[in-house]
Recover the amino acids of this structure.
């Protein structure tokens, strides 16, 4: 592509794009279609596996429910338990016999049974195959509460899990059944079986009875059960370290919350991307999950990618050949057009551009030739207009000395070639001496003039700015106009200086009066409140410290400048101006305000906004008045603004005002330390205060401390 023009290269690339775009679209469509099919089939297989494992878990649980039912029908257990619970004579002897019976004739029936014990209606263990458990109270345990207290719902039976009282952090199965007396069949207690969790673990082992001992045809490689509290109680492959781990994944939460199954692609508790199915086990409130790694399920897609890669490579070679041949012909004509435009740029408007084609490029070359003719005519007209300008220049020079402003005309080397009497008077240099020096030397006493003029010379654009007398207090407005010839080359400049000292003085006086007016307005509000001393001065200072610290953060460097800080300081003094509208009976009330009174106090924000409405220079003050009681978390007033929806000026004043209130002594409270104020502000970061402003406070806290000491309340 080295010999092609930019247009030729672009045309060549467009050919490639048009050819490859359909192939790419087909490839992507096929990929996502095949992926959807594989995913759907895998999820169905995983759901089928989960259903089969759930059935086997139910079978295992039913066996333990049946065994608890069998134990509860034992006549000796029933009669002995009734005697113990009713408190007959020989109580200890009956307990010993029943404990022995439970140990020798019940616990020994199955190796997975840890303990068999009897609980009375108050939740106390009255007999147990483990003697040490007798006398323990268990009124809140599900295996006691649900069979006995929720009989209508459970039918007097319970099966589920519980944390092992022996091995902390390890689960056990628990099955229980209500005990009834022989005559009236009324509940007298509950018989409980503590069971090794391995009986549940066996139910999720591939090759177990759940699949008739076969291991083929199943998709799941991870199987686990979580209880109603999102705790893992059984898993495959078995990992003891994960048992009793909190399983806070979306699919499990959804199943446990709704009782409905869930299938999909997600990240599991091991942070692995998987396809999985989770089903609900109604009897226990558990969830059983089957999963397989997503990269394994989608492995066939990689082979499809190799096929399409080969097709794309062959197509690319074919398109390269065709597009290169087509663009070469177009490229030759483009080069002719480029050469023609270069001749126009050099001033040759007589030689026409010749393109031997019969398409739009031929039309374009004819348009260029017509343009050259127009340019030639235009140049002749420009020469005529230039002579008119020259005559106007002569007329201007006649009135040159009648202008009061200082005017200097300089050549390309900055030498002064013409100056009026106003320049001689303003610069204090004789008129004849001005034309013997440069404009920089003549204006040496003016601070900023040299930089301003250099900017105009380099940019060849008019510039304007203020310059100052180094030895006096005068201020001048300088306007510098570069002059160029008809070819755009720099020929010199005209510099005009106007004395604006009186105007600047009037502006300063106006600004000082505005500040005094704002201060008096602020004092009007402060004199009706309990604020004392240098409160307004400190608020101004705190706001300046916070703004200057915020300006160091890249986020605010383009927002906060010297003018922003100045307006912020002035406006901060008016933050409570709205309190002029609050009755003294409420504003000066020494005790706690009732809700109605506090509602009236809150109106000072909108009152202050309304009081300052109108003049543009009160814009920042109005923001502060209205919003300095907003909270960053949106719980403030009057508008409930939140986060950065609160104006930056108000966020700054909120923290400054709070700090001063905390560390200042008032008739109704003692002053608190800087450290206490800092702790309060840090605790409220992101709640009452903007975190960025809090960080600015932390960075400038020493300045806060010094300012408060120098201007005490």
């Amino acid at each position: 592509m080295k010999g092609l023009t930019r247009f030729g290269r672009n045309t060549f690339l467009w050919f490639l794009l048009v050819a490859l775009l359909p192939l790419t679209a087909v490839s992507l469509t096929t990929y996502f279609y095949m992926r959807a099919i594989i995913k759907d089939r895998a999820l169905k297989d995983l759901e089928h596996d989960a259903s089969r494992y759930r059935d086997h878990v139910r079978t295992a649980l039913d066996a333990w429910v049946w065994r608890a039912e069998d134990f509860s029908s034992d006549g000796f257990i029933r009669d002995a338990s009734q005697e113990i619970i009713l408190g007959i004579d020989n109580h200890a002897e009956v307990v010993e016999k029943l404990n022995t019976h439970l140990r020798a004739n019940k616990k020994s029936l199955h190796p997975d049974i840890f303990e068999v014990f009897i609980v009375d209606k108050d939740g106390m263990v009255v007999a147990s195959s483990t003697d040490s458990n007798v006398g323990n109270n268990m009124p809140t345990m599900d295996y006691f509460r649900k069979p006995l207290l929720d009989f209508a719902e459970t039918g007097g039976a319970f099966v589920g899990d519980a944390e092992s009282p022996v091995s902390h952090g390890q689960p056990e199965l628990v099955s229980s059944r209500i005990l009834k007396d022989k005559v009236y069949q009324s509940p007298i207690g509950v018989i409980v079986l503590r069971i090794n969790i391995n009986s549940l673990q066996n139910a999720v082992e591939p090759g177990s009875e759940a699949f008739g001992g076969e291991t083929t045809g199943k998709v799941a490689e991870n199987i686990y059960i979580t209880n109603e509290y999102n705790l893992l109680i059984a898993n495959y492959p078995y990992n003891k370290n994960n048992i009793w781990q909190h399983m806070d994944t979306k699919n499990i939460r959804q199943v446990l919350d709704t009782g409905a199954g869930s299938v999909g692609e997600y990240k599991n508790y091991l942070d692995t991307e998987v396809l999985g199915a989770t089903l609900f086990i109604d009897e226990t409130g558990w969830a059983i999950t089957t999963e397989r790694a997503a990269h394994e399920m989608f492995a066939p897609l990689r082979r499809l990618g190799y096929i399409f890669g080969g097709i794309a490579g062959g197509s690319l070679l074919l398109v390269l050949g065709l597009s290169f041949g087509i663009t070469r012909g177009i490229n030759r004509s483009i080069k002719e057009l480029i050469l023609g435009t270069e001749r126009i740029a050099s001033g040759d408007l007589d030689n026409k551009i010749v393109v031997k084609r019969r398409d739009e490029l031929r039309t374009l070359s004819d348009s260029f030739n017509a343009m050259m003719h127009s340019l030639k005519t235009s140049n002749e007209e420009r020469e005529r207009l230039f002579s008119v300008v020259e005559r106007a220049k002569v007329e201007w020079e006649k009135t040159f000395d009648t202008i009061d402003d200082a005017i200097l005309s300089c050549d390309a080397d900055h030498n002064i070639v013409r100056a009026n009497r106003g320049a001689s008077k303003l610069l204090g240099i004789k008129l004849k001496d001005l034309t013997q020096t440069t404009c920089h030397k003549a204006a040496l006493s003016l601070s900023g003039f040299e930089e301003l003029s250099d900017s105009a010379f380099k940019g060849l654009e008019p510039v304007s700015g203020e310059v100052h007398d180094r030895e006096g207090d005068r201020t001048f407005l300088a306007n510098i106009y570069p002059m160029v010839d008809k070819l755009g080359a720099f020929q010199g400049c005209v510099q005009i200086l106007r004395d604006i000292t009186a105007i600047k003085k009037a502006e300063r006086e106006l600004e000082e009066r505005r500040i005094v007016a704002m201060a008096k307005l602020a004092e009007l509000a402060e004199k009706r409140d309990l604020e004392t001393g240098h409160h307004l001065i400190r608020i101004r200072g705190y706001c300046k410290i916070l703004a200057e610290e915020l300006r160091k953060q890249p986020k605010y460097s383009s927002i906060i400048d010297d003018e922003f800080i100045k307006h912020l300081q002035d406006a901060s003094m008016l933050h409570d101006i709205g309190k002029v509208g609050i009755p003294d009976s409420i504003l000066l009330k020494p005790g706690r305000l009732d809700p109605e009174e506090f509602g009236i106090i809150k109106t000072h924000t909108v009152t202050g906004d309304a009081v300052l409405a109108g003049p543009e220079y009160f814009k920042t003050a109005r923001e502060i008045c209205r919003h300095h009681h907003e909270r960053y978390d949106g719980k403030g007033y009057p508008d409930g603004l939140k986060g950065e929806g609160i104006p930056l000026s108000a966020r700054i004043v909120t923290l400054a005002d709070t700090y001063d209130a905390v560390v200042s002594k008032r008739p109704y409270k003692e002053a608190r330390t800087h450290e206490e104020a800092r702790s309060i502000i840090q605790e409220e970061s992101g709640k009452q205060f903007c975190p960025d402003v809090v960080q600015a406070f932390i960075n400038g806290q020493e300045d806060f401390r010094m300012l408060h000491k120098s201007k005490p309340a």
User: Anything to note?
Assistant: The two ends are 79 Å apart (CA to CA). The mean pLDDT is 82. The first helix runs from residue 6 to 72.
